[in-house]
């Protein structure tokens, strides 16, 4: 495994697709990259992160705490790290809304 960004244990992405042909702009559902149908507009992206930082002042974890990030469940390893789960949703503004 290659570490691209120090302290990022998990990076999850879901794509908001617009499958309605009603002309209204919006997300019909969120899917993984391999579930995006061809020629279906992606109009938003959900991003989830699990960040960690080692801290020897903390007691060792028992490895039972779980983090839920965009549908993925991650179990904390038995170590001395602080962890924080974050998520956000971004509307894609570069989409050609006039083409709908």
Written overview of the protein:
The mean pLDDT is 86. The relative contact order is 0.26. The chain has strands spanning 8-17, 29-31, 42-54, 66-69, 72-75, 81-91. The chain has a four-stranded antiparallel sheet with strand order 2-1-3-6, with no helix packed on it. The protein is built from no helices and six strands. It has one domain. It starts with 7 loop residues before the first strand and ends in a 9-residue tail after the last strand. The protein is mostly beta strands and 100 residues long.
- Sheet with most strands: 4 strands, antiparallel
Shape: elongated
Oligomer: single chain
Mean pLDDT: 86
Total number of strands? 6
In short:
The chain has strands at residues 8-17, 29-31, 42-54, 66-69, 72-75, 81-91. With 100 residues, the chain is an all-beta fold.
Provide the fold topology.
Blueprint: E1 8-17, E2 29-31, E3 42-54, E4 66-69, E5 72-75, E6 81-91
Antiparallel strand pairs: 1-2, 1-3, 3-6, 4-5
Tags for this entry?
single chain; 100 residues; mainly beta; 4-stranded antiparallel sheet; two-stranded antiparallel ribbon; elongated
